[in-house]
Specification:
This is Bifunctional NAD(P)H-hydrate repair enzyme. The protein is an alpha/beta fold and 488 residues long. 42% of the residues lie in helices and 16% in strands. The structure holds ligand NAX and potassium ion (K).
Length: 488
């Protein structure tokens, strides 16, 4: 954002104009979201975030509110645009330690924004705690003070827990990644007049995972097609009593539009599957032979390995055969145990086999696979990107803020998963959807991002009480939501 601001100013929009628009947007949200509030306390910090606070104070007072600004530090040490805006504020200013929380009906947090560089301490930390404890609604300017906008994590112990946040130009990672998203409350994005050229000059670290990102490569069934032209997915089945995971993946690949799906594995497992599946085909194979032949011969367009596979000699052997057959693969679950702390070897297997791979670890599996190779304090976006680069594969780092990262540096963050999607087996469904889309010719990054979005929409369409068994049946509702296409 510093780059965007600088480019906007260089292109002729003054810093004061940007700040006026930013503070004006804050005042607008106050008036709109808290119609009946009259007494507003504005906590203003020493930098430009505080400057936005002074603008909001003036605009709210002009609109008839009672406003008090509580300033961290003294007026004389304000600089630049913030000093200018403080000068234009004619109302009451008190020291931060005297902030009248009991008097206020609404608190505006303009202490620190993008310039926060270290944990809050002393009087700022005390003011943040007092604001949180006051029971008053809090509207944060740009980011809740104390939050690192780049990682979505508080820099120290003290961090504002806001009811709403007004941010400018574009969302920051911290508005979407957790716990930041929860600390922001409702997020309002305001245009403050930064020209498009200024925005384009700063390359975004990541995009929100919305259909606009992958819609153009989403498969459309052709009336001239047949089942194999819609793609064939092979799912490796683990041992009999761990079969549910591979069955969920298989059913979901079909629902995502693959023309045919086959569960492949040893006979005892298939006998269990046979009691459950109808449209999914079954193919008996000795794990020590045949899997690679099957993948090569049967016009298989994508294979899934991991859900319920087990970390056994047989599954390791089958995984090796998968790698040697190439193709598109979704690798999940036990793959991360098999390659525990050996991501270089997994990357080499993917590269040597010429496999187009999507890996879908949750945080625990990610840590198991990567060992200490990725800095754990880095943002979830940066960790997923680092792993994607190391592995030469698309990495889906799962969670309530799932990040999809491509080895080419692109990343997408999902914000559409409901809390109740955290349920046993949901990950197996995600692997299946991704494979179903890969088999229909979608590239890895797009397929993975689309799968994550559909997974979240499917869960939402079903609602609370969802289990992973329900998810494949909810995929059609997610596909309809995509078709109706009102989200961009
Ligand atoms: N042209 C621009 O740059 C614009 C900036 N805007 C606002 O400006 C904000 C960024 O402003 P700044 O870069 O001045 O940064 P901030 O206002 O977030 O804070 C920077 C100030 O806080 C100090 N500081 C950092 N960490 C501290 C800590 N833990 N304890 C005490 N002091 C600390 C810094 O030394 C500096 O004086 C944005 O978040 C946004 O609200 C908007 O007005 C739009 C235009
Ligand atoms: K703030």
């Amino acid at each position: 954002m510093a780059k965007v601001d600088a480019a906007a100013i260089a292109a002729g929009t003054s810093g004061v104009a940007l700040m006026e628009n930013a503070g004006g947007a804050v005042a607008d949200v106050c008036a709109r979201d808290w119609r009946d509030v009259r007494r507003v306390l504005i906590l203003a910090g020493p930098g430009n975030n505080g400057g936005d606070g002074f603008v909001a104070a003036r605009r709210l007072a002009e609109a008839g509110h009672d406003v008090v600004v509580a300033l961290a530090g003294d007026l004389a040490s304000l600089k630049g645009d913030a000093a200018e805006m403080a000068e234009r504020w004619m109302g009451r200013t008190v020291d931060l330690v005297e902030a009248p929380f009991g008097w206020a009906e609404l608190v505006v947090d303009a202490l620190f924004g993008a310039g926060l560089s270290r944990p809050l301490d002393g009087r700022s930390a005390a003011a943040v705690r007092a604001a949180n404890d006051s029971g008053r609604p809090i509207l944060a300017v740009d980011v809740p003070s104390g939050l690192d906008g780049a990682t979505g994590r508080p820099l120290g112990d003290a961090c504002v827990r806001a009811d709403a946040t007004v941010t400018f130009v574009r969302l920051k990672p911290g508005h979407v990644l957790l716990p930041g998203r929860a600390l922001c409350g409702r997020v309002h994005l305001a245009d403050i007049g930064a020209p498009d050229s200024a925005i384009a000059a700063a390359r975004p670290a990541a995009m929100l995972n919305r259909p606009a990102l992958w819609r153009s490569s989403f498969p459309e069934p052709s009336i001239e097609g047949h089942k194999y032209s819609r793609g064939h997915v092979a799912v490796w089945s683990g041992p009999p009593l761990a079969g549910g995971a591979s069955r969920l993946a298989a059913a979901s690949a079909l629902r995502a539009g693959a023309g045919a799906v086959t569960l492949v594995g040893p006979r005892p497992a298939l006998e269990h599957h046979a009691a459950h599946v109808t449209a999914v085909m079954l193919r008996e194979l000795d794990p020590r032979a045949g899997w690679s032949d099957f993948l090569a011969d049967r016009r298989v367009n994508a294979w899934v390995f991991g859900p319920g596979a087990g970390d056994t000699e047989a599954s390791r052997e089958a995984l090796d055969q998968g790698f040697s057959s190439g193709g598109c693969a979704v690798l999940d679950a036990d793959v991360f145990s098999i390659f525990e702390d050996r991501p270089e070897e997994l990357g080499a297997a993917i590269e040597d086999g010429g496999v187009e791979a999507v890996l879908t670890p949750h945080e625990g599996e990610f840590a198991r696979l990567m060992g200490g190779r990725v800095e754990k304090d880095a943002s979830k976006i940066d960790r997923a990107k680092a792993a994607a680069a190391l592995l030469g594969a698309t990495v889906v780092l799962k969670g309530p803020d799932t990040v999809v990262a491509s080895p080419d540096g692109r990343a997408a963050v999902a914000d559409n998963a409901p809390a109740y999607l955290a349920t046993a087996g949901a990950g197996d469904v995600l692997a299946g959807i991704a494979a179903g889309l890969l088999a229909q010719g979608m590239p890895c990054f797009e397929a993975a991002a689309a799968a994550v979005w559909l997974h979240g929409e499917a869960a939402k369409s079903f609602g609370r009480g969802l289990t992973a068994d329900d998810l494949p049946y909810a995929i059609p509702a997610a596909l309809r939501a995509l078709e109706n296409g009102d989200r961009s």
